[in-house]
C-alpha cells in the first residue's frame, strides 16, 4: 500500500490518534485538536477540516488542517492552512506538496476561493504557488510571513 491522504470528516476512527499526533508535533493541547477535529467530523460548517497521511502500517506520517484563524492578528483573512507537518524520515518525497494540492482541491469543492497561511518558511510555499501577502504578528507578538493561495 502507498501512503494515503485521509479526510478526517469521513474517517472518524482516526480522530483520537490524529489529535495525539498533531499535539505532539505542535505543542498545542490534545484537547484543542480533539475539539477542532470533532467539529470537522460533525460537518456543521466547512471549516475546520483536518487531513492526515498514513503509511502502509496506518501510522500517521504527515498531516495538516484548515481552521478559521491560525493565531494571528488579521482575523478577517480566513480560512487558514495550519499544522502542516511531515515526519522527518518522509520529508523531501513530495508529501507536503501532495497535501497542499489535496487540501486546495477539497477547499475548491466547498467553494472556498482563498486560503491563507502563516509560516516562517520562505521558498517552499512560493514553489507551490502561494503568494507572499504581508507580515503578521502571532498571538505572542512574533512576526511571521502570511501567504495566500487563490483557488481557481
Short description:
It contains four helices and seven strands; from the N terminus they run βααβββαβαββ.
Architecture blueprint of SSEs:
Blueprint: E1 4-7, H1 15-26, H2 30-42, E2 49-54, E3 60-67, E4 80-86, H3 95-109, E5 114-119, H4 123-127, E6 131-137, E7 143-150
Antiparallel strand pairs: 1-2, 2-3, 3-4, 5-7, 6-7
Helix pairs in contact: 1-2
What labels describe this entry?
globular; alpha+beta; 152 residues; 3-stranded antiparallel sheet; single chain
Shape: globular
Strand content: 25-35%
**Uncertain stretches of 5 or more adjacent residues:** none
* CA(first)-CA(last) distance: 32 Å
CA-based gyration radius? 15 Å
Please report the number of helical segments.
4
Descriptive overview:
- The chain has helices at residues 15-26, 30-42, 95-109, 123-127, and strands at residues 4-7, 49-54, 60-67, 80-86, 114-119, 131-137, 143-150.
- The protein is α+β, with helices and mostly antiparallel strands and 152 residues long.
- A hairpin with a 5-residue loop joins strand 2 and strand 3 (60-67).
- Helix 1 packs across helix 2 (30-42).
- The radius of gyration is 15 Å and the shape is globular.
- It starts with a strand and ends with a strand.
